[in-house]
Design goal:
mainly alpha; 9 helices
Length: about 200
């Protein structure tokens, strides 16, 4: 069971989630974007939110600035990786994707960036929250928006996402990586900015 929990935690590590969400977004909206647009945007998300942060992580680790594993369990060591992610997300949203017509996806990434800013404040205050759960919960309003706007089948996408969130939350609790309070706070940090942005605009 412990091995399964570790595998789930690694597969749905926050560094993978933006690429996964981008891929799912374009898969659900395959009729609205050309193949080139879908591949390029997903590739850009992969490079900026996975490959670049991973390279920076190993660079910082080689300098001895990070001592935690890939999961960065020490709350004090979360500040730099989270800040770097905020900078990278802003570059992706406002520079690389400045002219791309994927407004719902860009809105998700803005909310995702706001969630990361709140997570940074929490880390600075030495309060640990689940970044895994925050990252996944940020996607709920995006897919609700897609289901209601384009009449996609919500009985497939949303239950799958909720089951996934439940699996990841259970894995993090089983590994004693977080308390139930940290999971709930992480869920609120992820869900609230996204919900506000999607349903106030």
């Amino acid at each position: 069971m412990k091995i399964t929990a570790k595998i789930i935690s690694f597969i749905f590590h926050p560094v993978f989630i933006p690429t996964m969400i981008t891929g799912c977004f374009y898969f659900l909206n395959v009729d609205f974007f050309s193949k080139t647009e879908r591949l390029v945007a997903t590739g850009q998300a992969f490079l900026m939110t996975f490959l670049l942060p991973v390279c920076i992580y190993f660079f910082l680790k080689s300098l001895g600035l990070l001592k935690s594993s890939v999961m960065v369990s020490d709350v004090r060591e979360r500040n730099v990786p989270i800040f770097i992610n905020i900078v990278i997300l802003n570059i992706l949203i406002f520079k690389i994707w400045a002219e791309i017509a994927n407004s719902a996806l860009k809105l998700f990434f803005v909310a995702y960036c706001i969630s990361y800013f709140i997570l940074l404040l929490s880390a600075l205050l030495k309060r640990k929250c689940s970044v895994h759960i925050a990252s996944l919960c940020c996607a709920i309003p995006l897919f609700i928006n897609q289901a209601t706007t384009y009449y996609l089948n919500p009985f497939f996408v949303l239950p799958a996402l909720l089951v996934l969130i439940g699996m990841v939350a259970s894995a993090r609790l089983y590994l004693n990586a977080h308390t139930s309070v940290e999971i709930i706070v992480g869920a609120l940090i992820g869900f609230t900015p996204s919900f506000i942005l999607f349903y106030s605009m």
